[in-house]
Amino acid sequence: MTALANLSSAFRGTGRALLDTYRLGGRAFVAAPALVVIAIAPEFVQHVVEIRLGMFDSLADARALASDPTRWGFGYVKLAGFGLAILLVARFWALGSVRRAVLMPPLAIGRLLLALAVVLGTGFLFERIAALTTSTALWAMINLLSWTLQMGLTVWLVATLVEDRATTIRTAFTSRLPTAALLLLLLAAAFAPAQMLHGLNHRWALGQPGWLVWTLMVWDSLVVGLLASLTGSALWVGYGSGASWRGWA
After folding, report:
1. pLDDT tens digits along 63-103
2. What pTM was estimated for this model as a whole?
3. Alpha-carbon distance 150 to 180, whole Å?
4. Domain residue limits, the chain
5. What are the backbone dihedrals phi and psi of residue 197, each rounded to the nearest 5 degrees, phi first?
6. What is the DSSP string of 16-36?
7. 3-state SS class at 242
């Protein structure tokens, strides 16, 4: 009966988490616009550059200019802003204010950088090991182990991001491991639809009149802001759910 109750809790909790991810992702535009604009502003600036370069004049122009150095110069800034907005939105929902989200104590920054280095370093190490093996079975085992490690370490990484020291590496791999599965589901649910719309906006703009291209690119910048706010919200909702082997909190 306990196992059935835990399973029922997990199903209810997952549905609630999906709704909360989209609810908070939308609310972030009103509750923390200063954080969302960190993703929106550089996206729009890159679109201005793309329009000036003539990237939306035709499909051929879009392909020819996709790797343009000027475009990518702004693109790196855009990616940095997008990633930062995701992290800050997650911290905002966890800590309750824009000020606390932005002003991360030096010690907390150090822990976050350490956790990030461990996650990236572990992934790189196992990728190199897998590349050296010639056995399909061994390759599969190495990747399975890498995947499991990355899941647990991701929970620990989010814990350091939101300054929750109650979750250690040990608890991330034991009682809180189901949190990793929920995080993966929420991130996919948050990212995929908005990313698809983001791609379609670029296709719809090809060969259109100037006023329509500008309209679509303004709209697309807002979509990217939504994408960042949804992803950041997914990080917090997934972690804050308290998902464990006994169900969701």
Report:
1. 888 888 888 888 899 999 999 999 999 999 999 999 999 99
2. 0.89
3. 9
4. 2-240
5. -65, -40
6. HHHHHHHHHHHHHHHH-HHHH
7. coil
